[in-house]
């Protein structure tokens, strides 16, 4: 289901008509790729609790309170005003008890709707909650959303209130849509990300596999920090040689994707930014590179994926 699907819009407006808590699950590794445009408007006066999942991917040294502040501020920038922000790892079963306490606090005996784009780990989270809440799977599957064909899971919270799962919404701007199987496994991190530091001078380029390219165009000698899957190969070259380097090595030294899949990701699109402060250059779904202030940088990605600049997360 896509963000513009009628079924999806019906689900959201149905939530807007009820009195409920909305739990918006996001992937902190792909934060902007997990935001649902217009969510605040659709859910009306209902409070939103933002849950940042995949916490296990971020360095342990990163202060969780700082990360929550960052999430709240980034959410505010796109018009989302969550009443609270939680961090969990659904896969590692981390902080889920805290999450249930927070949900109870803000739901105040109302129903709870869980919304999220695909791939944020919503099913993993729902399954963990089911295991936690219910000894046996006493689940009800009903058509909560009149006018749609969607059957969704409901988890009883008390005698007459439920946590209701909603269909995952497809967000087109995700690298995941351009990759398959083995290639996908090389960009979706499974373990804590080990940041990689590069000392760069103006006129140097980093390739992220053959999937993305980062140009450090001007700026003094400075460290940039790459946050991507630990197994994604990175290669440095001179910007002036980058095109021929790509032509010679794409699909071989530069992977993923493998040679036979290169066609799928072309053509590339280029995004250029001048940084005013230390910032993250985000390659949607692939990760980000923290760059210094007063630098001119460019990011190249397959058309449709998108590169953005944001206030630094870490
Ligand atoms: P959904 O589309 O939102 O329902 O997402 P899934 O539950 O199917 O999960 C999408 C991917 O994210 C899967 O590869 C999961 O293994 C992974 N995933 C889910 N939760 C976590 C988590 O807490 N940490 C990490 N590292 N990966 C997770």
From TrEMBL:
Sequence ranges assigned to domain CP-type G in this UniProt record: 9-172
Pfam families (UniProt xref): MMR_HSR1, YqeH-like_C
UniProt xrefs under PROSITE patterns: G_CP
An annotated Gene Ontology molecular function: GTP binding
Record Gene3D superfamilies: P-loop containing nucleotide triphosphate hydrolases
InterPro entries with a match to the protein in the record: G_CP_dom, GTP-bd, GTP-bd_ribosome_bgen_YqeH, Mito_lipid_metab_GTPase, NOA1/YqeH-like_C, P-loop_NTPase
Protein name as annotated: GTPase YqeH
Organism: Liquorilactobacillus satsumensis DSM 16230 = JCM 12392
């Amino acid at each position: 289901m896509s963000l513009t699907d009628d079924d999806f819009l019906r689900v959201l407006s149905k939530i807007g008509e009820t009195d409920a808590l909305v739990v918006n699950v996001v992937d902190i590794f792909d934060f902007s790729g997990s935001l649902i445009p217009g969510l605040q408007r659709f859910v009306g006066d209902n409070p939103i609790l933002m849950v940042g999942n995949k916490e296990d991917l971020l360095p342990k040294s990163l202060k969780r309170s700082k990360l929550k502040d960052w999430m709240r501020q980034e959410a505010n920038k796109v018009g989302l005003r969550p009443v609270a922000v939680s961090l969990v790892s659904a896969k590692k079963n981390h902080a889920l008890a805290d999450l249930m306490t927070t949900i109870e606090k803000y739901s105040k005996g109302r129903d709870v709707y869980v919304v999220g784009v695909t791939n944020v780990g919503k099913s993993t989270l729902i399954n963990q909650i089911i295991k936690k809440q219910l000894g046996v799977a006493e689940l009800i599957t009903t058509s909560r959303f009149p006018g749609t064909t969607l059957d969704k899971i409901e988890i009883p919270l008390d005698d007459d209130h439920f946590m209701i799962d909603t269909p995952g919404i497809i967000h087109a701007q995700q690298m995941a849509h351009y990759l398959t199987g083995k290639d996908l496994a090389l960009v979706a991190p499974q373990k804590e990300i080990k940041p990689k530091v590069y000392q760069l001078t103006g006129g140097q380029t980093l390739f992220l596999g053959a999937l993305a390219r980062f140009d450090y165009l001007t700026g003094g000698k400075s460290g940039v920090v790459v946050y991507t899957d630990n197994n994604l190969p990175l290669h440095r070259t001179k910007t002036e040689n980058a095109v021929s380097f790509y032509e010679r090595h794409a699909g071989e030294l530069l992977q993923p994707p493998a040679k036979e899949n290169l066609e799928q990701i072309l053509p590339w699109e280029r995004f250029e930014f001048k940084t005013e402060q230390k910032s993250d250059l985000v390659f949607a779904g692939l990760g980000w590179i923290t760059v210094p202030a007063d630098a001119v940088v460019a990011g190249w990605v397959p058309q449709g994926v998108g590169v953005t600049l944001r206030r630094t997360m870490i």
